[in-house]
Amino acid sequence: MNFFADYNNLALIAIAVVSGGLLAWPTIKSGTGGKRVNAAAATQLINKRNAVVVDIRDAAEFAKGHMPQAKSAPLDDLPNRAGGLAKDKAIPIIVVCQNGQRSSKAQAALKEAGYSEVYALEGGMAAWQQAGLPVIK
Prior knowledge:
The protein is an alpha/beta fold and about 140 residues long. The protein has two domains: about 1-30; about 35-130, 3-Layer(aba) Sandwich (Oxidized Rhodanese, domain 1). It has helices at about 1-5, 5-30, 40-50, 60-65, 80, 105-110, 125-130; strands at about 35, 50-55, 70, 95, 120. A five-stranded parallel β-sheet has the order 1-5-4-2-3. β2, α4 (about 60-65) and β3 (about 70) form a beta-alpha-beta unit. The protein starts with a helix and ends in a 7-residue tail after the last helix. The model has no long low-confidence stretch (mean pLDDT about 90). This is Rhodanese-related sulfurtransferase.
């Protein structure tokens, strides 16, 4: 009991709890965004289920290189363009950004627009390129 009565020990315990929470936060936050797929699984969805690839990066980033058949729909404009991305709302949608950080917002917007199966590409275009998969410029 003396351990908890010492203020120095309480400060160390508080620091440990806060730092643990900060380390866990990205995992907790990404878990609420939706489903994620790696580059190989994304390729399978595209080839076997005709998934629609939606690139949410801005026009300049898109012009530097994008996945084949990707549709450009910048994140800021996505709610306005969501309805016309796929004819059938049951077709899988793969959301792509540069490194996977912005895709959660896009997933939420597409779910709200009525798409039932929305995935985010883990690691974004950076992971796609690192895997040596094709890029259109």
